[in-house]
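Before any further analysis, backbone shapes were mapped to integers, which produced the following:

***
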Amino acid sequence: MAEVSGRRRIVRSAAVGAVALLGFIGPVGSAPAAADDSGSSTVLILPARWTVEVKCPVERLSDGKIVDVKYGTGTGSTRSSAKKNALKNANDQIPRGHRAHHCREI
């Protein structure tokens, strides 16, 4: 595979970024279509949306025992932002005197 020069890589990255900002290529409301005989095609690119669910054991602070499990769900435009929102959702359910103990993505 041929190596891409630095200048071409930057131009390609800028083009991909512009498409991501616009959210689509082609007229608004167009559906994805295969190329026809004329060689033209319309491509619709929807913005990515991530959903993450986490499971958090609930630790009682007074004795350090795991007493419950809370689940949280979050969405975001990136996986990390979705996970952050899921962790916040789970932590919002934890009562006073307790804490989330090593939450994990499920």
